[in-house]
Amino acid sequence: MTRVSVPALVDSFLAAARPGPFEYEACHHVAGRRSDAPWLVFGFAIHGNEHGSLPALLRLQRELEDGGQEAHVTLLLGNIDAIEKDVRFVEEDFNRVFTFDQPAKSCERKRAERVRPILDRADFFLDFHQTQTKTREPFYTFPWARELVTWARVLGLAEVGLTRPMGQSFSPGLKCLDEYVRDRGKIGLTIETGYRGQDVAQAELVYRGARRAIDAWNRLVSGIALDDIVATAPPIRWYQTEHVIASAGQELRLRAGLENWTEVRAGELLSAAGSRELTSPATGYVLFPKYFGPDESPPPELARIAVPFQSS
Ligand SMILES: [Zn+2]
User: Fold this and answer.
1) Same domain, 91 and 212
2) Could you list which residues have their CB under 5 Å from ion ligand 1?
């Protein structure tokens, strides 16, 4: 099997990119049938080492044509500086800096200023991410709102999702791209398609996600209600974070083998041999487990434990 060169994917995209009304060179825009059509934005590689979506980005760029769908579609390529280095981000997490409450000093904040006009036009934003540790399956992550949950079913990209009460940010004081769009009263969703890196199945999932969103908007524009579009879609199992396991320095480390959606029992040992002891505070599922090297500083949190979501 030929290895995919990620920089070559980025170069191909940039070479053919038509930014349309935007000044951001790393986006590709195709117009809808009418100038007042709804506006769809899809996010790719917002985190630099989550580039598994790029083959789908190129395929969509090749296939989509002006007026070929009802909605305007903008394909947004994210943190190119980080993609080149194959790291999550260079100076600051690009998916946390959409606050615009301080001078744009880092390269990510500078990029966010340039991407902002794209998000300001979005009626619908779907952000394709990948996990930093392995995952049993793809999953959605966004706050609980009926419309978002309905959209997740329409897209049909995952059978599970991690949610939280609306208004509760994923990381307090920081803002993700999808959160920025939701704060404008528009639709913003994130899907974690799988473990980071190139993966044919994930690229296919991303492509399908964008296509289904475009198709659904074709139907919405023709007058069909979202509730009718979703009617036959299977339900999704929703979970919420019950506990955030905070870091406690170098002495606290997770045992090997924990993945996203690993099932754990209350009291089960989660720490590695030689680490300070840590047991699971609840029966549920591990999410976003973090491992770090002896020379790396520990991340702010080590893992989350999720339990079935109870909508009040
Ligand atoms: Zn990500």
Assistant:
1) yes
2) 47, 50, 129
